[in-house]
Amino acid sequence: MTNTNVQIAMLTTESDARRRVANALAVERMLSADPYLVDVAPARDVVPGMTDATILTSGAPLRWEEYTGGQRRSVLNAAVYEGLADSVQDAETAIVAGQITVRSTQQHRCIGSVAGIYTASMPVLVVEERTFGGTSFCNLYEGQSRYKLNYGAYDDEVRAGLRWLEDVMGPVLSDALKLTGPIPLKPMMARALRLGDELHSRNTAGTLLFERELTSAFAELRGTSNADAVAQVVQFFRDNDYTFLRMSMAAAKAMADAAHGVAASSLVTGMVINCQSFAIRLSGMGDQWFTGAHPQLDGRFFDDFGPGDAEWIGGESCFTEVVGLGGFAQAAAPALQAYQGGSYERMRDNNCAMYEIAVAEHPDFLIPALDFRGSPVGIDVVEVLRRGRTPMIDGGLAGRGGGQIGAGLLIPDLEAFQSAFDSYCARYDCTSDSAASSDSTGDQEGPR
């Protein structure tokens, strides 16, 4: 998206020089981050601040009364699934009474796909970032059915699928990781790009590579009483190419968090969606999320669905774009054209346009179709506004009745980026009365 009707304030020479130095440090931290998958465990056991009566959901934090539509429905159904309420009506009453707490995934180091629902019993991937010491979490993929809790649907099939993840998939993966030891994710992700994934809307190679990594462990576990469960998990991997998306999301969250908290950096270190807005955070602006309108949809609808059937119910998989994947590596995945429409030439052009708003090229995430050029990485809010071009995000589209109804490009408006930059100027520009010295939030180097 290009919009030339943008007003961008001029930073003083001193402020801009400080910003460039800070951005170089922030992007170096992002590139140096080294995420490892170390375990799969129930959320209550590993997610900081998680309680039996807590439900997490995607996007910048909202008050309960602000959640609407499919995202609100997903939270209420999650309470029923977890046994916190007998019905959605009881769940509503319990939330209003404070007996059930609803919070953003981002407040607990988690990352969520679409509605991004976490309950205490749900198994989560535990990813440690070993260069700077952070930890991130992502729950497991629900399967290939169009109808999933994170897409606003809930019935006997959805409930059975969630229970299978809890009783079978989670424990098998945990046992396998005890045999393999921690698994480095970045080398696997880099290879998946070379094999045709962009690791947001296409994860076929990543899933195959991850299954191969666990082959010896699965073989050993098949000689135990878990043989049937292992066979089920192997079949799930082979039936569900999207399985690796949750690993790439957790890794992306870990890498973005490593770049967060660098004073004076204008680098985007997070992009999220809830039912009300699209939001971003900047490395040098602490925990504040800057909101704007939902992205424009440019994609392909499944079956007989159309634009009027789409509904925003959340999503944080766009963290993959933050670290140089997804729409920032679209040219690596020509087969994606069949899934989300358009042409490969356009995908390649879109990918190349993202270099204009990025401060670096990734030394590990290489794109064969671009002569093995590193993917653009390190979205600079200043360049976004200067060029009037926002990040392009690969994503799925949720329907008002629940389930996924399409896929394509999500193109944010400039509103959230303008809001973030205005606040950045107020804090860091030397000519502002509210410069950095008046507010220390975010003025530390290192991940939060």
What can be said about this structure in brief?
By secondary structure, this protein is an alpha+beta fold.
Overview of this protein structure:
The protein has about 450 residues and is α+β, with helices and mostly antiparallel strands. It folds into two domains: about 15-30 and about 265-440, v583 fold (Alpha-Beta Complex); about 35-250, Enterococcus faecalis V583 fold. It has helices at about 15-30, 45, 70-80, 90-95, 155-180, 185-195, 205-215, 215-220, 225-240, 245-260, 320, 335-340, 345-355, 380-385, 415-430, and strands at about 35-40, 55, 100-105, 110, 125-130, 135-140, 185, 270-275, 280, 290, 295-300, 310, 360-365, 375-380, 395-400, 405-410. Strand 13 and strand 14 form a beta hairpin. Helix 1 crosses helix 10 (about 245-260), helix 5 packs across helix 8 (about 215-220) and helix 6 (about 185-195) packs across helix 7 (about 205-215). The radius of gyration is 21 Å and the shape is globular.
Structure keywords:
448 residues; alpha+beta; v583 fold; Enterococcus faecalis V583 fold; five-stranded mixed β-sheet; 15 helices; 37% helix; 19% strand; disordered C terminus
In CATH, the architecture of the largest domain is Alpha-Beta Complex
Helicity, as a percent range: 25-40%
- Hey, roughly how much beta strand do the residues contain? 15-25%
Strands across the major sheet, in which order? Answer: 4-6-5-1-7
User: How is the main sheet built?
Assistant: 5 strands, mixed
Low-confidence stretches: 432-448
Distance from first to last alpha carbon: 31 Å
Number of domains: 2
The CATH homologous superfamily of the largest domain:
Enterococcus faecalis V583 domain
Which class do the helix and strand fractions yield? alpha+beta
CATH class of the largest domain: Alpha Beta
> What is the count of DSSP helices, taking H or I runs of 4+ residues?
15
What is the name of the CATH topology of the largest domain?
A: Enterococcus faecalis V583 fold
Radius of gyration: 21 Å
Shape: globular
